[in-house]
Amino acid sequence: VFDDEGKDVTPHPLFHSDPNAVVPGQGKLLASSAYFGATGSVVLSSFSMTQTSGANASLGSFSRSHSLTSCYFSDVQVRPEEIKEELTKEDLDRKVDIYLTETETIWILDMPPVVVSAESEDAARVLERNRIYVDICKNRPGSDRFVEKMVQTVNGAAKNKEVQCDKIIMEDKGMMVTSWDLYDSFHVLEIEPTSKAEGSRAPTGKNIKSHPTKEHNQSMSISSERGSTTSSIMISESPVLARIYEEEECHSEAILTSENFQQDLFFMERILMENIFQPKLAAYRQLPVLLDPDVTSDTSGTVAAVEAAKQEEHAKLKKDEAEQKDAFIDPSILSDLNKTPEEIVPLRLERLWSYRCDLTNGHGVSSMAWSKVNPDLLAVGYGGSDFKEQKKGLACCWSLKNPMWPERIFRCEHGVTALDFSMASPNLLAVGMYNGSVAIYDVRSCKDAALLDSSESSNKHTGPVWQLRWVEQDRGATGDDKRERLICISADGRVTEWLIQKRLDCTDLMKMKRTESEKKKLPGEKERKSEALISQQAAGMCFDFHPKDTNIYLAGTEQGYIHKCSCSCNEQFLETYRGHKGPVYKVAWSPFSADMFLSCSADWSVILWHQDSQTPILTFSSAPAFVHDIMWSPKSAFIFAAANESRVEIWDLSVSIFQPVITSFANSRGKFMSVLFAKNTDCLLVGDSEGEVSVFKLQNLAAPNSNKV
């Protein structure tokens, strides 16, 4: 290494070796076992060609192949004191015998063969065993010496893998094809375009092509004989005919869309519906059925047939009444009522008609409500009957004057779960939906849009609104001015009051918290720690306000508890009624007794309660099915209706407390979801999961007696 001036500045080594000194261990033939840390075996390594040349002569070809290989001598034991520190020339020239031995075999993988050579010693033994095995396989079928047994092996740990996907919806579609449709489809390329004149004379060119008319043949022959004169006349007439045809179409469309024509159709529809449903509507309104006034004396045979049919029906009614008396009336009950079987007339159900159309098919009836001022107007809410298959909802207003098509149709983005008419403003219809929103519609308007919606409210519900009602405020504070509140209960555990202003907004009347079940502690049992709850809120399912004190209301929860609450106290419950083992679907105060109320649940039971007692008075259960809805009769303090999944039941507590007096079964396709009594007549409305509302007439319903409560 040179610097800038050219001087040698190469660094010199600090250690200078002596060329005459012998490096220890360089020329040694053998090394001690202590130097290598072994157990006494001596290792020979790195032999040069000069050192191995003498050994090659004595070892032959075998040792020649291993001249450059490291050899391990495990059998040669050399003590450290026998090793000389320095080798002389005589030692180097002396011949040394080297013995190569095989080391111990280390088996890393041992796979025994399944075949042997035919020339091996074990070939005869293997052939004999194979022959014995073949004989055993031949003699095994049907032999009692062999028994088959199951052997359980250890299976690997199973892995569960869940995959979520959208539901695959299958649809069947079909169409009807006629022979001429097939003909036109196969020969559409062969049809030549016709002239405008031919198009103006005939509505379709296909019929002219396949089925030429006589007039068309004549025009073709005349045009061929007279030449260009006739053809020019036909071409000049075609725009005039086309314009006349267009004017006729526009005129007919204007007639169909005119308001006068629509009103005339409306009146005609009313007349036709009244003619068709006149006997049913007369029975609904408890009016006599009118006969045709044109029936004269020469129709005596028809009148006789009508009278014979009436007598036969009367005899059948007598027979049914006798059967129902034998089936439902218990002698002990008759003794308590101080009546004989002849004095008790059983109830009967007669189906009149049903509210149903193409729009409501497949939509479950979730709720029904009568108009407060018009007893002929019924509002029905439609939604999905199964929470897994939610559809778009409908809120329809049906009239008794047209049971075949609703008067108003309000389409909702989500399934309708509850609805109710306002009392102060009868034209307002409040609708609760499955997504937690609340909307108010004006039934006087034919528009589909809602007047008010809770979508912009910051306090809107986060769960389905299972029930809502318009409730009057305390009349003593407002005098003649009747103000009302819109109350809702939702699955998010809140009972809310909605304020109707420029937009919908709500305040909480109660936030229902989960209540721990009261379990009796056995003697000697330790107290268990309370389990952690996923949600502190109890899902609300239904509510009903007291008929006299509008400050008190009952709220049913998904836990199966019924809480008695007050509007003036939103922190705690007044009472808690424990009797149901499943979600409470409906609670209803008795219209005749302010202390009694009913409740129905998913535990297949209906319970009668007294507000001063937390123990059920009576429990009614007749079928293993969910009881979705109940309602007291407005005419009798003993009668109430219950909607099971498979049937609707009418209970008359004056006759029996063990079995319903009337049972009407649903069809195989749907199940009953809700019930509603008519206000002014003895009729019952039942809604099912297929979108049908059936109207039944209760015959022989007793008049209300204020002394029997």
Automatic annotation (TrEMBL):
**Gene Ontology MF term list:** dynein heavy chain binding; dynein light chain binding
SUPFAM superfamilies on file? WD40 repeat-like (SSF50978)
Q: Which residues cross the membrane?
A: none
Would the keyword Cytoplasm be found if you checked this record's keyword annotation?
A: yes
InterPro entries linked: Dynein_IC, WD40/YVTN_repeat-like_dom_sf, WD40_repeat_dom_sf, WD40_rpt
Could you tell me where this protein is found in the cell?
Cytoplasm, Cytoskeleton, Flagellum axoneme; Dynein axonemal particle
**Superkingdom per UniProt:** Eukaryota
Q: Name one Pfam family in it.
A: WD40
* Segments of skewed composition (Low complexity): 219-229
Locate the region Disordered.
Answer: 194-229
The record's PANTHER family line, in alphabetical order, gives:
DYNEIN AXONEMAL INTERMEDIATE CHAIN 4, DYNEIN INTERMEDIATE CHAIN
This chain belongs to the protein called: Dynein axonemal intermediate chain 4
Organism of origin is Corythaixoides concolor (Grey go-away-bird)
> What is the phylogenetic placement of the source species in the record?
Eukaryota, Metazoa, Chordata, Craniata, Vertebrata
